[in-house]
Amino acid sequence: MTITVRELVYYPVKGCAGTSADSARVIGTGLEHDRTFMVVDAAEGAFRSQRTHPAMAAIKVGILRSGAVLALSAEGVEPLRLDVAPDGPRRDVSMFDRPLGAAVDQGDTVAEWFSDVLGTKSRLVRAAPGFDRDGWGDTPGKVNFADAHAVLVTSTASLDDLNARIAARGDADAVPMDRFRPNIVLTGKDEPHFEDRVRRMTLGSVELAHSVRATRCSVPLVDQLTGLRRGPEPVRTLATYRREAEYGNRVSFGVKNAVVCEGVVSVGDPVTVQGLVGR
Predict the structure, then answer these.
(1) Which one of 56, 72, 269, 277 has the lowest number of neighbouring Cβ atoms within 10 Å?
(2) What is the C-alpha separation between 96 and 120, in angstroms, rounded?
(3) What does the alpha-carbon distance between residue 70 and residue 89 come to, in Å, rounded to a whole number?
(4) Strand pairing partners for 229?
(5) Which H/E stretch holds residue 64?
(6) What is the pLDDT of residue 84?
């Protein structure tokens, strides 16, 4: 069977809702507009995520005028349209206690908006011009404000297998793909987790190379529509068959990739696999 692109999603603000696209430009740091913005603690500049603020999942973000404007909406507050400041006053930010340097602060109005939604003092920042951050793994690549890699790839076969295992337990509902916040979802291959074995792939005019498997924290427990933590699935079931000794015995789902050739990818594009390793 032909492997094709089933879905494309980018996440303009790290931790907030994703935006599906029929076609996307892919640059060195991933899908265009992906994780260009980040919500941080107002005092320390530490990033906020669904790990501690699951309500972020239900914050919708629209990209308008090619990224010049953000349209923000959330339950219980007035929507906000933000004129993006590509440069200006900066503040030091960090992720996982690692300094990332200075990012461009987007001002008091949007800071107050996020503070109201999340119930804690927050600021919104944008990657500054010239921001240069390395990933890690087999092919490190470059990354904006994603955890550590440019593109997260999953497959429908992997999700179908997981949901079959959850169903076999008989006490939980199936989980949707958005729990794993992928950028690219592949379909057309029956083998669960075949994406783990792919070392290079071409999709449209884009080429990706394997970095690492995607290990999972508590974020897949969050309902991405409501911003409420549901648990214990899918992590409970993943733990029965997807523990990765080389990654500290954490569970994995999906694979993280670096961009080695920029271009455009569209839903329905065939995927050419250029390298496979054993199971």
Answers:
(1) 277
(2) 19
(3) 18
(4) 222
(5) strand 60-64
(6) 98
User: From its phi and psi, is residue 188 left (phi > 0), alpha (psi between -120 and 50) or beta?
Assistant: left
Q: Are 183 and 267 in contact (CB under 8 A)?
A: no
Residue in 136, 139, 118, 156 with CA at minimum distance from that of residue 40: 118
- Given the DSSP bridges, would you call strands 151-155 and 184-187 parallel, antiparallel or unpaired? parallel
Which residue pairs from 99-102 have beta carbons closer than 8 angstroms and sit at least 24 positions apart in sequence? Answer: 100/133, 100/145, 101/128, 101/131, 102/128
pLDDT in the model for residue 209: 98
Which backbone phi and psi does 49 adopt, to 5 degrees?
A: -145, 175
Q: Is the bond preceding 234 in cis, omega lying within 30 degrees of 0? A: yes
Nearest alpha-carbon partner for 253 in 210, 208, 216, 198: 216
The residues of the chain scoring below 50 in pLDDT are: none
Q: Encode pLDDT of 130-163 as tens digits.
A: 999 999 999 999 999 999 999 999 999 999 999 9
Calpha distance 32→34 (Å, rounded): 6
HEC string of 81-107 equals: EEECCCCCCEEEEEECCEEEEEEEECC
pLDDT for 250: 93
CA separation for the pair 57, 106 (Å, rounded): 20
**What residues pair up with 27 in beta bridges, in sequence order?**
30
